[in-house]
Amino acid sequence: MISKKMESALNAQINKELYSAYLYLAMSADSADKGFPGMSHWFKKQYHEELEHAEKIFDYLIQQNARASLEAIEKPTASFNGPLDSFENALKHEKLVTASIYALVDLAQAEKDHASHSFLQWFVDEQVEEEANALDVVTKLKMIGDGNSGVVYLDGKLGKRGDD
Ligand SMILES: [Fe+2]
Ligand SMILES: [Fe+2]
Fold it and tell me: Residue 108, SS3?
């Protein structure tokens, strides 16, 4: 049993996760278009992860006999100014999502909703990973700078995401 307020906050989070998925799919398309198949693959993997996050919350709502409701998903930015811009935007976006998860944890605490609080801890941990993954690529891209061969090498590495 969760409150109506928690129900609607979790539904808003489903929308954010689906928007995240949509944003990463847009980044995947843009990376492919700009000649970075590895980054396109990396963003597509990320897209799938975000869909799973949305589903996790969807399933939790149903388990709690609450109503999962789906709102319109905002149109994502379609074009970025190269790899560094894409990954910097990914990192910026993940920080927003982290803040949103923290607000949910705060609400669970305020409502003494121990079940939701426990459920949300997975997302707290996941966000640490999400930010670290995006930051890792941003850092590498900054080290590479304008070196084309470095970007091509990194693109090859990112294309192997999910293989290890
Ligand atoms: Fe997510
Ligand atoms: Fe994410």
Answer: helix
